[in-house]
Design brief:
Residues 67-121 form the Translation elongation factor P/YeiP central domain. The chain has 187 residues and is mainly beta. The chain has strands spanning 2-3, 12-15, 18-28, 36-43, 49-55, 59-60, 66-75, 79-84, 90-94, 110-116, 119-124, 128-136, 149-154, 159-163, 171-175, 180-185. A five-stranded antiparallel beta sheet has the order 9-8-7-10-11, with no helix packed on it.
C-alpha cells in the first residue's frame, strides 16, 4: 500500500485489479478541505490512460512488480522479442500496447522489463540514448537563420529534429522522454 501523498511518476498502482503506471501527477492543496493528488495513470495491459483523484492521506494498492534486465532480440510486427539476461528465457511483449517504444529499441541492447505476475507489462527505456543518423538532408551554411533544425532518421526509424550541421553517419544523443536532440556524440 502506498499513501496518496507519496505517489510519484513511475509508481505502479493496482487500479480495478489491473496494473497502471503513473505518467503525470499534480498535488493540489485547496483553501478548504484536504489536499489531494490528481494522477494520470497508463494501463499497462492495454495502454489506456485514466485520471484519478486520490486524497493524500488515503492509501492505494501498489502493484508488486519485478524489474528484469533483458536483451532485445527483434520485432516480428506483432511482438517485441526479448531474452532474460540471467535465465536466457525468451518471451514476447505485444507491439500494440507499446508502439511508442519501438523506435527506441535496438537489437542486442539491454532494457529493463517490468513483470507483473510473471507476465511482461512494460519496457523501461533509458532517459537518454545514442543513435546513428542514417538519413539526413544536406543544408548549405548560410541558408537559414541561427537555431534552424532539420529532421533526420536514425537506424531504428526514429525521426528527430537536429541542428543543420549534423550529417549522415554521425551519432547523436537523444532525450527519449521528449524525443529531442541533446548533443552530437564523438566516439
Amino acid at each position: 500500500m502506498v499513501r496518496g501523498g507519496e505517489i510519484g511518476i513511475g509508481t505502479c498502482l493496482l487500479i480495478n485489479g489491473t496494473p497502471h503506471i503513473v505518467v503525470e501527477r499534480e498535488f493540489v492543496s485547496p483553501g478548504k478541505g484536504s489536499a489531494f493528488a490528481r494522477v494520470r495513470a497508463k494501463n499497462l495491459k492495454n495502454g489506456n490512460v485514466i485520471t484519478q483523484t486520490i486524497k493524500t492521506a488515503d492509501f492505494v494498492e501498489d502493484a508488486q512488480v519485478d524489474l528484469v534486465d533483458c536483451q532485445y532480440q527483434y520485432n516480428d510486427g506483432e511482438f517485441f522479442h526479448f531474452m532474460n539476461n540471467e535465465t536466457f528465457d525468451q518471451f514476447e511483449v505485444p507491439v500494440a500496447a507499446h508502439e511508442d517504444r519501438g523506435p527506441y529499441l535496438k537489437e542486442g541492447e539491454t532494457y529493463t522489463i517490468v513483470m507483473w505476475e510473471g507476465e511482461p507489462i512494460d519496457i523501461k527505456i533509458p532517459y537518454k540514448m545514442v543513435f546513428t543518423v542514417v538519413e539526413s538532408e544536406n543544408y548549405v551554411r548560410g541558408d537559414t537563420v541561427s537555431g534552424a533544425t532539420k529532421p533526420v532518421t536514425t537506424e531504428t526509424g526514429l525521426v528527430v529534429r537536429v541542428p543543420l550541421f549534423i550529417k549522415q553517419g554521425e551519432k547523436i544523443l537523444v532525450n527519449t522522454e521528449s524525443n529531442e536532440y541533446v548533443e552530437r556524440v564523438n566516439e
